[in-house]
């Protein structure tokens, strides 16, 4: 028998040989050739910058190849360059900090001794205006604390930094001593104060040092929203880099995520902090120069937006009292409902992952028989929900999951230990129209009625809810001088019921507020304001496009001035690229209208209505703050609590009188008047939970009082 011969491929032996060839090739590649090779790869803009930065750093001898790459005779790879780039950026940052300290201007003062502080205070004794800023450990105004004061003497052109709580071996003054010395200046209303994002600084001074800032004059952050509401960033460093041509790295670029207390070199700290005061002053002067070209905008800014900074600080400081036990029960209940919905939907859709758009979209297309552009809730699914119960269930699942994940599950951690309350955080100009928005982890207006019961009235208090009755409808009627709407408002009739009565030939008395006829009439009215197309309107109402067109035409015939006004807004924005809001108080800039874009034509009328509603809300909140302060001066503890949609919430004594209620209502109805139509405000009292409202007459009877 012939011997068996086993043939094998020598793959194991080939590996070292291949690697040896690679090493040989790598050892023959010069660094210049390596850079040339990497540059020839498919690189985006960031990659190109990375390659250039690392190459220059190597050529300047600041860095070298990684030790293991050299030892292994490896070719320079993109991955190695990425790692080296981290080092290069750190070196660059250190160089920038050293350069800042070395080249710090002579009018930037580092104050470390009592004598130097005395000298500086003697200078600001003669000042009529100061720029102020606080450097802190973080951005939470309740949990973080001040580590240094920035004060700029405007007339003297001196910009000082007074460190008090840095982690350093260098000399710094005692925090309480400095606060005591500066308090008279902060609290002197005769000295005008300038800041960027002043609300944050005011809150830190109050919460950490019990300093009540007075004399706030100019805040460069809201000022910039007056000049450009489309600005991508309102961060100070970004604004001065862009508009003043003063290159300024952001805090994160210089110090990362560390608090300012970790900056141990106080000269570096001063170079950074004092510059804040310096550039804030320069930015204010730049903004004033441009605002002076628009006197009506400047007047509105100074009379409404500036006082509103302090109004918001006061409102945020009140905070909500949370029933933690109820919140936990509600969270468990909501979590169970979400899981039940998920299981039901998963089974109905054949076991797919309903959280996967890629898996869900084909199933929804199969259900509807339509090719869906996406599964976007607002654009695609909401219009389909009335026809398809499954889609309605899916949207509820998504909404509940978001509510739970974003708010309900996080409520306990959002309550501040220092106050025992949950404090909202607002952006005064969160929308381009000037409307407020919530920031941070809590947004009261996203809580459904059942979840609102988590919020309770403090002991001995009630929550008073005061709404702007049909705020945007009244504003639209006034701006358009639409007599049909104005007459309905004057006569105390619901304008949407009045429209529905004509559109469907039904007596007004037979149309309820919850009727489909009223809903359709209101949607048709809003279609003029929002620029909603007939097809979209039909989808919203579950009617055909033809029916939507006919309804809109019928309503338009009753509101000729409104139709003319919205058409005029479109003509104006096409010609000018913006529309005016209020009494020429601010602009809504829609520059794409000048390019013939269609979207601005849909936005312009809504911008005017929503924008004026925002102005009315701000003016009213300012006046409410003043009225509540007067009540507190009389020993009555009233405090602004929140703004939610078109409603203001006030924390009031449980024995609130009818006279005090009337004061609040007068503020709501008389602070900002509209032409041709009165404001209205309904009052609701929440005696225990925010979700359980009672009318005033019921409230008085329940506490054993009489109704006058």
Brief sketch in words of this structure:
The chain has 708 residues and is α+β, with helices and mostly antiparallel strands. The protein is built from 29 helices and 19 strands.
Description:
This protein is 55% helix and 11% strand. The chain is α+β, with helices and mostly antiparallel strands and 708 residues long. The chain folds into five domains: 17-101, no CATH class; 105-293, Ribonuclease H-like superfamily/Ribonuclease H (Nucleotidyltransferase, domain 5, 2-Layer Sandwich); 321-422, Taq DNA Polymerase, Chain T, domain 4, CATH 1.20.1060.10; 466-470 and 614-702, Alpha-Beta Plaits (2-Layer Sandwich), CATH 3.30.70.370; 472-613, DNA polymerase, domain 1 (Orthogonal Bundle), CATH 1.10.150. The strands form six sheets. It has a six-stranded mixed beta sheet, sandwiched between helices. A five-stranded antiparallel beta sheet has the order 16-17-13-18-19. It is globular. The termini are far apart.
Quickly count the domains. 5
- Poorly predicted sequence stretches spanning 5 or more consecutive residues: 1-12
How does the helix and strand content classify structurally? alpha+beta
The averaged pLDDT comes out at 92
Note the beta-strand portion: 5-15%
Largest sheet: 6 strands, mixed
Order of adjacent strands in the largest pleated sheet: 1-4-3-2-5-6
Helix fraction, binned, reads 40-55%
The shape, in one word, is globular
Rounded Rg = 32 Å
In total, how many beta strands? 19
- Specify the number of helices: 29
CATH architecture descriptor name of the largest domain: 2-Layer Sandwich
> Under the CATH scheme, which class of the largest domain?
Alpha Beta
How would you name the CATH homologous superfamily of the largest domain? Ribonuclease H-like superfamily/Ribonuclease H
Terminus-to-terminus distance: 123 Å
- CATH overall fold name of the largest domain: Nucleotidyltransferase, domain 5
Protein name: DNA polymerase I
GO molecular function, one term: 3'-5' exonuclease activity
InterPro entries: 3'-5'_exonuclease_dom, DNA-dir_DNA_pol_A_CS, DNA-dir_DNA_pol_A_palm_dom, DNA/RNA_pol_sf, DNA_polymerase_A, RNaseH-like_sf, RNaseH_sf
Enzyme class: transferase
């Amino acid at each position: 028998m012939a011997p068996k011969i086993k043939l094998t491929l020598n793959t194991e032996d080939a590996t070292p040989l291949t690697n040896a060839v690679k090493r040989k090739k790598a050892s023959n590649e010069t660094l210049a050739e390596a850079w040339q090779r990497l540059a020839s790869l498919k690189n985006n803009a960031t990659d190109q910058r990375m390659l250039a930065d690392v190459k220059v750093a190597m050529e300047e001898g600041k860095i070298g190849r990684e030790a293991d790459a050299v030892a292994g005779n490896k070719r320079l790879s993109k991955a190695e360059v990425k790692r080296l780039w981290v080092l290069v950026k750190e070196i660059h940052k250190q160089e920038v900090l050293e350069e800042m300290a070395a080249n710090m201007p002579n009018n930037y003062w580092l104050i470390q001794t009592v004598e130097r502080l005395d000298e500086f205070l003697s200078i600001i004794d003669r000042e009529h205006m100061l720029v102020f800023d606080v450097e802190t450990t973080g951005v939470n105004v309740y949990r973080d604390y001040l580590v240094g004061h920035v004060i700029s003497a405007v007339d003297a052109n001196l910009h000082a930094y007074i460190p008090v709580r840095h982690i350093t071996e260098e000399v710094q003054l005692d925090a309480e001593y400095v606060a005591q010395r500066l308090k008279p200046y902060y609290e002197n209303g005769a000295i005008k104060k300038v800041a960027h994002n002043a609300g944050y600084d005011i809150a830190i001074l109050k919460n950490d040092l019990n300093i009540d800032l007075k004399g706030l004059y100019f805040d460069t952050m809201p000022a910039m929203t007056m000049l450009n509401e489309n600005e991508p960033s309102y961060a100070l460093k970004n604004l001065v880099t862009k508009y003043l041509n003063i290159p300024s790295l952001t805090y994160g670029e210089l110090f990362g995520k560390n608090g300012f207390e970790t900056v141990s070199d106080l000269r570096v700290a001063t170079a950074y902090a004092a510059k804040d005061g310096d550039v804030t002053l320069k930015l204010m002067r730049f903004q004033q120069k441009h605002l002076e070209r628009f006197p009506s905008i400047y007047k509105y800014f100074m009379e409404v937006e500036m006082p509103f900074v302090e109004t918001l600080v006061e409102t945020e400081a009140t905070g909500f009292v949370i029933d933690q036990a109820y919140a936990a029960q509600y969270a468990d209940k909501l979590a169970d409902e979400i899981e039940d919905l998920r299981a039901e939907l998963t089974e109905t859709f054949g076991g797919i992952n309903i959280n996967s758009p890629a898996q869900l979209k084909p199933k929804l297309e199969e259900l509807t028989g339509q090719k869906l552009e996406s599964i976007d809730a607002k654009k695609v699914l909401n219009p389909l929900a009335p026809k398809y119960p499954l889609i309605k269930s899916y949207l509820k699942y998504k909404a509940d999951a978001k509510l739970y994940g974003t708010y309900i599950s996080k409520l306990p951690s959002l309550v501040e230990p220092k106050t025992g309350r949950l404090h909202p955080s607002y952006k005064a100009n969160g929308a381009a129209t000037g409307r407020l928005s919530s920031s941070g982890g809590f947004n009261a207006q996203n809580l459904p009625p059942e979840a609102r019961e988590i919020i309770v009235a403090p002991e001995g208090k009630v929550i008073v809810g005061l709404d702007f009755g049909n705020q945007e409808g009244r504003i639209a009627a006034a701006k358009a001088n639409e007599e049909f709407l104005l007459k309905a408002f004057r006569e105390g009739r619901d304008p949407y019921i009045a429209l529905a009565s004509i559109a469907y030939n039904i007596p007004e008395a037979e149309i309820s507020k919850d009727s489909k006829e009223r809903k359709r009439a209101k949607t048709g009215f809003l279609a003029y304001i929002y620029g909603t197309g007939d097809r979209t309107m039909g989808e919203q109402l579950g009617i055909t496009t033809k029916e939507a067109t006919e309804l809109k035409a019928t309503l338009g015939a009753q509101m000729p001035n409104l139709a003319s006004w919205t058409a005029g807004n479109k003509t104006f924005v096409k010609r000018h690229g913006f529309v005016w809001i209020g009494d020429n108080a601010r602009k809504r800039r829609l520059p794409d209208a000048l390019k013939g874009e269609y979207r601005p034509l849909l936005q312009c009328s809504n911008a005017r209505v929503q924008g004026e509603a925002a102005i009315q809300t701000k003016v009213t909140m300012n006046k409410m703050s003043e009225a509540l302060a007067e009540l507190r001066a009389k020993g009555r503890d009233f405090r602004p609590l929140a703004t939610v949609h078109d409603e203001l919430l006030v924390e009031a004594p449980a024995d609130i009188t009818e006279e005090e209620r009337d004061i609040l209502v007068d503020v709501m109805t008389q602070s900002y008047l509209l032409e041709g139509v009165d404001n209205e405000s309904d009052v609701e009292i929440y005696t225990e939970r925010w979700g359980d409202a009672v009318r005033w007459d019921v409230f008085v009877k329940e506490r054993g009082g009489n109704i006058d």
